Model the fold of this input.
Amino acid sequence: ETGVTQTPRHLVMGMTNKKSLKCEQHLGHNAMYWYKQSAKKPLELMFVYNFKEQTENNSVPSRFSPECPNSSHLFLHLHTLQPEDSALYLCASSQGRDLAGVQETQYFGPGTRLLVL
Amino acid sequence: RKEVEQDPGPFNVPEGATVAFNCTYSNSASQSFFWYRQDCRKEPKLLMSVYSSGNEDGRFTAQLNRASQYISLLIRDSKLSDSATYLCVVTRSGSARQLTFGSGTQLTVLP
Done:
């Protein structure tokens, strides 16, 4: 399945490094999301973009910086991360229609497994 | 109190068994409810949406009780391929796109 792709799939970085995670969706969707999944914890929503505009930032530290240049691409720029930031970072997309009460199925990418040393 | 609570399990059941998972949510204004499935080291995938009237998809039945803020998933005639973590998911009030995930219930179906 190639609806939502993420690169790289694995990443090891030092605390002083700068890296970027990339997500691309081929589903014609307009909403994209970043989630963090740490061991033994539920998925945590980080950011939401709808029609390229950021609509949610769930109190994410500034060392995580999202970028959404168009509806198909989403980036997560990382700098000066901490070891506790090691986790699986999942991208998702959904249709993004602004219709109240309409359920939107979110489709997830395979994730980037990040290790911060 | 967690926004979405699930029994983490693990549930170990023999093939062919019926197994039920429960989930409670704290936000009475939540509008939409889902069960997602996550295989080991893979991404979550939607299993089924949950409607007030209850809904069935093959061997899977989902129920919602808004008064008790309770969601359930029933799996009949378990298959080995059903082994996974089942995630209870609700939307936050006023947002169709803000999903709150439970920690998941781990199921292992044994031969």
User: Anything to note?
Assistant: Residues 63 and 79 of chain A are 5 Å apart (CA to CA).
